[in-house]
């Protein structure tokens, strides 16, 4: 029974170790896959933004704007409105396309909302000379493109409701004499990017995702449960992770709540590289191109990762583990009982067998494979007069009577060998 218990303990330890190492291997594979999976986020940004720079370069070359010197007759103004309206139809992701003159006054504004496109009437056009983007774009040279941070759209000093996450792209317009003549500004509807991210990164109770801005604030949390979003700022919620993010743009880190996978990226730099290849002498500037480690950070939180998954598994499957251990115990106990019963039965059978040989009325000799005598019964001793000690290890030929031929002995040995 002692050996059976040792065997049982060893089996349970081996089973536990096998589960642990398998779990560790599986966790490492899953963590590596998560790092690769997050690369989809910058790809979604780059794919959605790739056409905007070329659109701006084409709009800035509109002959009517370059020749207008900031003033339009009725016919040219209507033609330019239709031209910008065409771009609004062509690009469903533009919420607004505007031409602002050099004094900061909107001359044309084309709005798009829920598939409807319209020109804003002249009386509703606004003075934007005090807005930060107008002041910055006014300083740009030809072929320089301005990009803002992702923020909310503001009209007449108020945030537009429902919320419109917006990225502003702008380019200065110059006359044929190279004089500043205003600017073209497009408001990109960032909901297209955010919704595509939500579709591709589906959150569950065990895994959630969030997009973080350059300032550490949450742009969008793609999860039903927001228990890990403690405030408006990821930077404040997880300062140690944010500090590491300033020196590394991709890493994983284990915290009390699970495993955080972090990927920081700068989609506008990719836009700049692609435009530079196609448009030659080009520069992109503005808040979106500030020399920081990241413009956006995509974060995933895996609550059942690494060692947390093991403890969670053991906690949630306690009943299953107890049943499994009890089943193993029953198997080993049954095996032990079988061994003991078999051993007892075999011992009793062997004892009866040898008693039958010992008391048999016929002389019986038992030899090994080489013909050496290993046992003789009592009847042999009585008939031959030899004791077991005298014949042990010897060949039965020592008691040949001479009455049988050599051929008979040869047949005998061939039969029993």
Describe it for me?
The protein has 417 residues and is an alpha+beta fold. Helix content is 47%, strand content 22%. The protein has 15 helices and 17 strands. It has helices at 2-38, 40-49, 52-60, 63-68, 74-90, 132-138, 191-200, 234-237, 239-245, 267-279, 306-316, 318-358, 378-384, 388-391, 406-416; strands spanning 94-100, 106-113, 116-119, 144-147, 151-152, 154-155, 158-159, 165-174, 180-189, 207-213, 218-222, 250-255, 258-265, 283-285, 296-302, 365-367, 373-376. The strands form 4 sheets. Strands 1, 2, 3, 4, 5, 8, 9 and 14 form an 8-stranded mixed beta sheet that branches. A 5-stranded antiparallel beta sheet has the order 11-10-15-13-12, with helices on one face. It starts with a helix and ends with a helix.
Strand content: 15-25%
Our measurement of the CA-to-CA distance between the termini, rounded to an integer number of angstroms, reads 41 Å
Tally of DSSP β-strands: 17
Uncertain parts: none
Dominant shape: rod-shaped
Number of helices: 15
Query: Helical amount among residues, as a percent range?
Result: 40-55%
What are the SSEs and their pairings?
Blueprint: H1 2-38, H2 40-49, H3 52-60, H4 63-68, H5 74-90, E1 94-100, E2 106-113, E3 116-119, H6 132-138, E4 144-147, E5 151-152, E6 154-155, E7 158-159, E8 165-174, E9 180-189, H7 191-200, E10 207-213, E11 218-222, H8 234-237, H9 239-245, E12 250-255, E13 258-265, H10 267-279, E14 283-285, E15 296-302, H11 306-316, H12 318-358, E16 365-367, E17 373-376, H13 378-384, H14 388-391, H15 406-416
Parallel strand pairs: 4-14
Antiparallel strand pairs: 1-2, 1-9, 2-3, 4-8, 5-8, 6-7, 8-9, 10-11, 10-15, 12-13, 13-15, 16-17
């Amino acid at each position: 029974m002692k050996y059976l218990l040792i065997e049982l303990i060893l089996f349970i330890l081996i089973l536990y170790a096998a589960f642990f190492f398998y779990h560790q291997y599986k966790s490492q594979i899953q963590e590596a896959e998560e790092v690769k999976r997050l690369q989809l986020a910058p790809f979604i940004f780059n794919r959605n933004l790739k056409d905007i720079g070329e659109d701006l370069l084409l709009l800035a070359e509109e002959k009517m704007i370059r020749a207008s010197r900031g003033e339009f007759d009725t016919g040219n103004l209507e033609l330019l409105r239709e031209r910008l309206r065409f771009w609004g139809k062509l690009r469903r992701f533009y919420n607004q396309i505007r031409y602002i003159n050099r004094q900061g006054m909107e001359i044309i504004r084309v709005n798009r909302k829920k598939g409807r496109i319209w020109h804003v009437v002249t009386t509703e056009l606004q003075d934007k000379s005090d807005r930060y983007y107008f002041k910055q774009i006014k300083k740009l040279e030809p072929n320089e493109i301005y990009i803002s941070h992702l923020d909310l759209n503001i009209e007449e000093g108020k945030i537009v409701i429902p919320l419109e996450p917006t990225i502003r792209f702008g380019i200065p317009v110059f006359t044929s004499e190279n004089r500043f003549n205003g600017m073209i500004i497009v408001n990109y509807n960032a909901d297209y990017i955010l919704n595509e991210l939500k579709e591709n990164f589906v959150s569950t109770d065990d895994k959630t995702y969030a997009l973080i801005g350059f300032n550490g604030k949450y742009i969008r949390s793609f999860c039903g449960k927001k228990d890990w979003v403690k405030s408006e700022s990821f930077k404040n919620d997880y300062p140690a992770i944010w500090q590491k993010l300033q020196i590394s743009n991709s890493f994983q880190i284990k915290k009390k709540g699970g495993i955080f996978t972090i990927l920081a990226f700068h989609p506008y730099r990719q836009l700049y590289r692609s435009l530079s290849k196609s448009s030659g002498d080009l520069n992109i500037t503005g808040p979106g191109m500030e020399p920081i480690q990241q413009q956006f950070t995509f974060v995933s939180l895996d609550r059942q990762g690494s060692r947390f998954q093991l403890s969670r598994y053991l906690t949630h499957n306690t009943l299953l583990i107890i049943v499994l251990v009890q089943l193993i115990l029953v198997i080993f106990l049954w095996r032990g009982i079988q061994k003991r019963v078999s051993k007892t039965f075999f011992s009793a059978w062997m004892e009866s067998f040898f008693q039958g040989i010992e008391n048999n009325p016929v002389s019986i000799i038992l030899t090994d494979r080489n013909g050496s005598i290993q046992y003789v019964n009592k009847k042999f001793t009585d008939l031959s007069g030899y004791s077991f000690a005298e014949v042990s290890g010897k060949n039965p030929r020592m008691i040949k009577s001479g009455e049988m031929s050599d051929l008979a002995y040869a047949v005998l040995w061939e039969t029993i060998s």
